[in-house]
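This part of the workshop introduces the protein records we will be handling. The question running through the whole workshop is how a given chain folds. To make this concrete, we reproduce a full record directly below:
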Amino acid sequence: MMFLSKDISMVDYIKFAIKNHGFLSLYDGLSAQILRQLSYTTLRFHLYQVGKQYVDDYNLFHKVYVASISGLLAGTVGIPCELINTRMHVDRLLKVKYRRNYRNVFDGIHTIWRNEGFRALYTGGLCSFTRATLVNIGQNAMYDQSKIMYKHYFDWDDDCKILHITSSLTAAILCAPVVQPIEILKTMQMNRSAGYLTTTSEKITYMMRFGFRGLFRGITPSLLRMIPQTIIMFLLYEQLRIQFGYYEEKVD
């Protein structure tokens, strides 16, 4: 939806993709997405949790600062996988001569390194760094801040599943619209070698092809992806923390 020049809805595009490329085309880039989650997401969670120990847990700006640094550092690990993932998503929409036809994430990394050089693995790095920072703020920092607010107003226990679900839902709803414009720009930047949209002005002009809502093109599928993903991620995280996490030993 970010790349199509026609104003087509999500449902129509799903029908188009299944009809022309088969149901499995909806999972293009899955190997890159999995590897990215295993590396980038794991690292940003760890760095954020470690960083939180050195700041005021009730101060939103402190959490935003820690989330920004941890997202930025984790982004350096995740950019190559994100590049492969993004290119595999849009490959079927490109003209045949511009298609990369990566078989999987490892084939993509090898092909880019061989044909374009190591630095090309960080194509769109600035946009990706910005996105990683905003996602970490929108998900991790906002999740923690939402937990504090809901615990205060509703007197929920820290281990309450309703608290975890509500807080993660809030974080996802706040995060998606903030990230979407930079997500679109990042997608175009990572595909700049596809024969068009080579300059920043061209990318911005193309983004605005539907007016102001062009900045949020694809927001519906983004929300439908981010909301369940964020809820499942934090719910599982909290359950793992409760069952296997550390606790402070009380001394009489």
About this structure: The first helix runs from residue 10 to 21. The chain has a mean pLDDT of 88. The two ends are 61 Å apart (CA to CA).
